[in-house]
């Protein structure tokens, strides 16, 4: 474990506001058990990453920062970015990516074949986080009435992320995206949320994504 790697990792974590630090831990759940992540402080998370990704912890962290839209931190600390791996396909512990294993939730075509570029793109985790940050306290009402999710699943989300409403919203949107798969586009989510009493900025944001 290089001292420089540990020091840089801690500086990156300390540069994140508490809300984004919690989001970073949440996005790491596909690669690190949630039981280790949830109670971890910033120094403890550094130790976990250094142990699980020896020599590669900065690259893993950079991938999560990109999903959070913190390219400024990637540039400030000159973090390495892994080329050729899409934003939403983190590596599994065995080195594979979900698409390589034929995970049906990771793409819109079986066998890992990407959908044609002419189709509207699926919402990314960064997109969902920006919507989640704008959703109000009536998130369960939105999930049940407008996204068609089960109340029991929403309560489970709340229990798994105590005291963090933004992550409740984010995981709710991720649940909707998993169900919709190829149809989880900005246009589709906007159609779902239009009847709800929400911050108009959410609909404006989704409208802006429709031209991507």
Automatic annotation (TrEMBL):
Residues 147-194 form the Death domain. Residues 88-102 have a biased composition (Basic and acidic residues). InterPro entries: DAPIN, DEATH-like_dom_sf, Death_dom, DED_dom. Residues 4-79 form the DED domain. Residues 82-120 are annotated as: Disordered. GO terms for biological process: regulation of apoptotic process; signal transduction. This is CRADD protein. It comes from Mohoua ochrocephala. The gene is Cradd_0.
